[in-house]
Amino acid sequence: MGDLAKIFKAYDVRGVVPDEFDEEIAEATGAAFVRVTGAARVVTAHDMRASSAPLAAAFARGAASQGADVLEAGLGSTDLLYYASGSLDLPGVMFTASHNPARYNGMKMCREGARPISQDTGLREIRDLVAEGVPAHDGPAGTVERRDLLQGYADHLKTLVNLEGLRPLKVVVDAGNGMGGHTVPAVFAGLPLEVVPLYFELDGTFPNHEANPIEPENLRDLQAAVLEHGADLGLAFDGDADRCFAVDEAGRIVSPSAITALVAERELAKHPGANVVHNLITSRAVPEIIRENGGVPVRTRVGHSFIKKTMADTGAVFGGEHSAHFYFRDFWFADSGMLAALHVLAALGEQDGPLSALLKSYDRYTASGEINSEVADQAAAVARVAEAFAGRPGVEVDELDGTTFTGDGWWFNLRASNTEPLLRLNAEAGDEHTMAAIRDEVLSIVRREEEK
Hints:
It holds the Pfam family PGM_PMM_II. With 452 residues, the protein is an alpha/beta fold. Helices cover 36% and strands 23% of the residues. The protein is built from 15 helices and 22 strands. Strands 1, 2, 3, 4, 5, 6 and 7 form a seven-stranded mixed β-sheet that branches. Helix 2 packs across helix 5.
């Protein structure tokens, strides 16, 4: 059945179809999923990739073979699957490889209430049961039923954001041929928005550009269209539409940290004094703005499993990552790029100025963005940086996730990739000159041995 350890990753299943991940594995996983979760009913959804519907159908066969009834939502975004799991209180599986190239596919799994399943919370058991062979079920097979949940999802999201004061806006939306092309029309229906659609045709071959808006080159069409149409803003979604990026009226890319701060302020207005979670590479403006609005910032490691667990443990009202994942307590602690987009539209539509003016107070520092260096000995590279920086007056060091160095008006973090020989640098300072100096000094130290 192939190398299951390769495709069953820390938080999901992902691999090349059919070489690494095929319908046989999907069917066996459906059976194992029911065994491990004890589910009597399961809900599924899938993205627009050519392999997604067949894989979802195979999973349904496996789940039904173990006596579970399967509710198929069909085409949907990942946050639509979370809506289904949360509102119906069912465990669920989303078939998607998010922003990965067309030849990939995968599964994101959750228990009822959209609670994530990772290696430590059931995914390892599911993998092992698939490898061993799932015992036959002693009883009748379950049923498979199709139900369209798109309208319910769209209606629910609009109950979570106050859109009453929204003035007419022109917005360009780049769906990247991903699931945003399916969900945006339903969610934006009835709002005073003139939508200029880019690449709304569902096409898992991604003929226009990768559905990965964290890469600036994948936002160029959106930036050009905003300027061409004189739009108030642009929004871009990734392949499974669970992440959302924005550009302002001048076509400038908006930092996800600025969106985190904006949404945090809005959520704190509804829930005064609440906890708000942010990962350690978001801008320092984020915890500052949380405190200024009476909230309590909670710093966590990078990664959705850490964000979701910390939110659940602290009852946080909102959580944001610099990768443009945004999590909401009112949405079962799950992430929803569409819900973040509605917050941005509501905030912009409540006042008369442009998006750039609205976001100015949230964008206080200059950031490097994430810079990867291929490093054979990551620990040695970090040790060289520590030797250079740790002894300097006023510099603080912590190791919550990788190593973070904080000085007077600047900080940077070095984190090793779990899967590649890469060291990731994020740096930020109060001005471009200081940030560039810190960034260049760290990179020169990190890459010194590699250049010999």
